[in-house]
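Chain A, query sequence.
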Amino acid sequence: MSERRRRADAVDNRERILESARRLLAADSDVKLNAVAKAAGVGQGTLYRHFPSRVALLVEVYRADVEKLGSSAERLLARTDAATALRTWFDEVADYARVKHGVLVALSVDTGHELTTKHAGTLARAIEVLLAAGRNDGTIRHDIDSREVLLLLGFLSRVDGDVTAERVHRALDVIVDGLRASR
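Chain A, predicted structure.
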């Protein structure tokens, strides 16, 4: 097997491990690494080559999701108007919050706090891009900034399994309605 093919396999394995961990964490924060390896279709040795510890895997799931959210604001704005992009981005944040909750429950309080503090700026920048586009087209209020939106979205980290997706989406609709400019 060529070196190039081995590298491609390693990248594919890493992505499958992350996706499996993400999916399993959304359902159970106590997921075991052997369950992640099995779901990803890799051996435990392969998992440990990529992620030497459970914490390393959890941190990478969190980091990758935050980076994806951070970059999605521009992509959404390229496809639709600012208000719709903001609402769609909120749906993506709600999906991410289920995984984030699983990650943070599984980590120590100090590690979780360090992780959220380190990556808050990425989310704030994405929100600011979306708010700026809405301010420019007149659909979003001028007196709201990304810190206030992050504060409002904080409820997502407290949503447990008893809260339905419908209720979460209704709460997000309320937030978007509150951000809209008066007509």
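DSSP finds eight helices and no strands in the chain. Residues 109-137 form the longest helix (29 residues).
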